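ok trying this again, last paste got cut off
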Amino acid sequence: MKVNGTHHRPIWESEGPQGPEVRIIDQTRLPFAFETMALPSEAEAVRAIADMLVRGAPLIGATAAYGLALAMREDPSDANLSAAYDRLFRSRPTAVNLRWAIDDVAARLRPLAPAEREAAAFARARAIAEEDVELCRMIGVHGLPLIEEIAARKGRVNILTHCNAGWLATCDWGTATSPIYQAFDKGLDVHVWVDETRPRNQGGFLTAWELGQHGVPHTVVVDNAGGHLMQRGDVDICFVGTDRTTREGDVCNKIGTYLKALAAKDCSVPFYVCLPSPTIDWTVRDGLSEIPIEERRPEEVTEVQGLGPEGVRTVRVVAPGSPAANPAFDVTPARLVTGLVTERGVAEASEAGLLALYPERKAA
């Protein structure tokens, strides 16, 4: 997608003195500054994932794949392959794309001679990123008719989204935003309600920024305004992303998604989850009991970053001495999900629905 009129991706390669150099957009600097940086080592890739310089399940997966490639540049031995895998695996626990990507790359590297591993790892990381671009584009192709149907009846389509499931969270297009961008580019009258998404404000900071860069009409609202807007008939459809979707259609996404799904159900607003297939965890059935929920630092709740007259600064927003809890994700049961929008089509949120699109997974 575009930044100030120039095409960018959240992760890419440039030529460096040792071969391919991995570069990212530092998302902790957005929306107040647009800065890019190199990931010179596997340790920096781990830090970028853990400290949320990169965010979103697909982008985390691609970054982890490049992390293994960087590790093989440093030391292509069997011991370092295993150690780097473990470090990357521990960097963030919830997004299944991370495990999928490093499993994929590691499986391709283990049979190879150490001298062949760096080039093979970079080639596979590059392919994972390119595959994600196409997966996300196709999510938009299959999600677009959902918007077109509403537009044919009503004209303007009001869409509510939560967190950032845009191109910044993937390798391009986004998941929940891909249908929105394709609808806007086709000339449909769309407007997006953007949840701020506390505590990291990924909606207000990232989704609003990228929609603005693309020219898509949008309005930022506090997280708890979604139910009110739905009650008033001001939301036609919800699109959200997911960090892990179970075999039976439960969806694990940014904290607050469950409450939006409950409100949508009560107000008869369609609630769609947009995801590429690597986000489906075929080994998990019950999202509530089997998906690990990341608990992040309490400072993310007690402090907030903003732009003032003296520049960007961090201030405390919670009473001194009060403790804070910070679960980063929640699980939305499949019964609250209208449908799962994938690169192969729209599935019912159930094992049968997913297997109808992915019959090759029946034996998994």
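PB: full thing came through this time. The chain has two domains: 2-131, 140-361.
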